[in-house]
Structure formats: structure tokens, C-alpha cells
Amino acid sequence: MGFLSDQEGIINRYIREEGAWDPHLIKTREFILDSIKGKMLRTIAILGSGWLLDIPLEELTEQCERVLLVDIFHPPQIVHKTKAYLNVELITQDITGGLVEEVYSLARNFKRFRKKKSIGEIITHGFKPEYEVDYYVSVNLLNQLEILIIDYMKKYRIYSDQELHGLRRRIQKCHVDSLPAGKTCLITDYEELIYKENILEKRIPLIHIKLPEGKRKRTWKWEFDSKMEYHKGRKTVFRVVAIEF
Q1: What is the rounded CA–CA span in Å between residue 36 and residue 43?
Q2: Which terminus of the chain has a smaller tally of CB atoms within 10 A, N or C?
Q3: Does residue 116 carry a pLDDT above 90?
Q4: Which of 53, 32, 245, 27 has its CA nearest to residue 137?
Q5: Which of 1.10.1740, 1.10.3470, 3.40.50, 3.50.40 would CATH assign to domain 3-187?
Q6: How much is the average pLDDT of 127-148?
Q7: Binning pLDDT at 50, 70 and 90, where does residue 225 land?
Q8: Does residue 174 contact residue 124 with C-beta atoms inside 8 Å?
Q9: What is the DSSP string of 198-224?
Q10: Confidence of residue 77 (pLDDT cuts 50, 70, 90)
């Protein structure tokens, strides 16, 4: 479904950007650390840990008894890196709560037998931890949860764009609803800005639900693609919001 190639694409783009991502990554790490400041946390779960580019891992291991890094796949380099930390545990888990496997089976059955399941029958569970956690960090993940799933479904042309948009909203809402109030830090890009010759050409909303107001909020811009490769001949910038709620 493209999860591994997407993850590989992230690290390759980070390298090509030659430091352009650093302000965004620094702001992300700072917001996470500010969110846990003064809290006595035994276990913290980082949802969407990926390459750990935006995770202050060293500080988290010093402030928390146990750090859980949760993702659908952990790159071998990260598996090797985290072996140096005795209180870091890698959790391989579909953060959508099983939707990846469900959609894969749905598309496979449609391809083989042309049987179409009503999109309303697709269950979106949201994230369900299998362990006790004192604090959650959902980091640059929310709009990524549905992109690969929806793109995969589009290939088979089973549902209309309107139906898929409804599913997109359900996936995002289930994720936010599964994060407990009072013990969560949520960071996500929420709007894509496309520039041609430094003139804003297009704005694309990435989040299709109402986000929590939170007790602390910060926004900034992420210079995502200064090399003009993501959209050929265009510069791509993401607007990011960080919320503690």
C-alpha cells in the first residue's frame, strides 16, 4: 500500500532539503518538551515515531521511565539506534486501529470478485493502545493516516470522491477522539501552500475536522519542498499547528 516507500521518501526528502526542515523540526521538539514539562510521567507514547527527526528522544528518555515509539514500521536504522536506550520500546502497530488491513482486504476482494462493500460498513476504530500510557504525542501524523489509504482505494475506483472524502474525515476524527483529553500533545500540518515564483498559487486544506481548542497552541510554517520537486516547478510549504489538550 506504499507505507514503506512513503517512509523512505520522507528521509530522502529531508536529506535533499539540506537543513530547510530544521526550523520546523526544532519547533516540534520544543513544543513536545514544553508539553511534558513539570509532569511526572512513567510512560509516554509517541504515535508516528518514524525516523525520529522531530522527536527529542534523548530528553524523553531522561524525563520518562518508559518511552514507547509507535509506528506501522520501524526503519532498521531506528531499530539499531534505539538499542542504546534501555527504556525505549518499539511498538509495531497500525495507528488507525486495523483500517489498513481492512482496506487492503476490501480492495483485494473487489479486484478478485468485483464485490463492493458499502463505504459506510468500513469501520474506523481509531487508535487503541495495548498498554498503559500516561501521556500521548501524535506527531505530524494526523493527515498522514488517511492519505495512503485513500490513495490506495482511488486506484481501484470503488468509491466516489465524495464517499472517500467522508471516509477521510472519519479517519481523522477517530484518531483525535481516541487521544485522551488532559494527557495529549497533537502536532499536525493542516494546510498546504503552493507557490510559483514566490506567488501563492494554491491552498489545499489537509485537515477536514474541527481540532481541539486545547490549553496551549502554536502555529508555524514548514518549508517542505524548496527544491520544487513535490509539485514540479512549485515550492511547497505546510502550515503546522501544535496543540496541548
Answers
A1: 11
A2: N
A3: no
A4: 32
A5: 3.40.50
A6: 92
A7: very high
A8: yes
A9: TEEEEEEE---SPPP--SEEEEEEEEE
A10: very high
